[in-house]
Amino acid sequence: MEVTGQEYRQMNKQTAPKSPVLKNCIKAFLIGGLICALGQVIVNLVQNAGMELKEARMICSITLIAASAILTAFNVYDNIAKHAGAGTLVPITGFANAIVSPAIEFKSEGLIVGLAAKMFTIAGPVLVYGITTSILYGLILNLIKLFR
User: Fold this and answer.
1) What is the value of pTM for the model shown?
2) Helix, strand, or coil (residue 99)
3) Are residues 92 and 79 in contact, defined by beta-carbon separation less than 8 angstroms?
């Protein structure tokens, strides 16, 4: 029996469970907001301890990255992501999770070929496009300033 692409999409539409979009959006918003609020709490606590804003932000970033990596290593971050969805993609924690997850998954292949090589399989394209975009943005900004 030959099935066309359109027939397949129709069959898939009939059998696939409906996604609770509103519920998922609310969960993502709340969890993502909670992660961001936690970051702000860290910044405020560090500032109240006597550090400057710049250092407080640095400590916040380090803390969130470390927490995300540790929670990923113990499979807690992935369990949170199952419920929060895109809310766990808050850039700093989501990026740390994207680096640690493949490293853990491929550690059985060895330190170099597994852990080190696979660590950037997911995060590699993000780094390449992020760095490239930031360079292009900087060049465009400098050209605009140059011709003003």
Assistant:
1) 0.69
2) helix
3) no
For 122, the 3-state DSSP assignment is coil
Say if 116 falls within a structural domain: no
Which residues form the domain of 71? 22-105
> Which of 73, 86, 75, 82 has its CA nearest to residue 35?
86
Question: What whole-number distance in Å separates Cα of residue 95 and Cα of residue 88?
Answer: 10
Structural domain contains residue 43: yes
For residue 70, give both structure tokens.
Answer: 């540790």
Report the first-to-last Cα separation within the chain, whole angstroms. 66
Is residue 53 a part of any domain in this protein? yes
Structural domain count, the chain: 1
pLDDT tens sequence across 18-34: 888 999 999 999 999 99
Pair 92, 69: CB distance under 8 Å: no
Closest alpha carbon to 67 in 106, 32, 38: 38
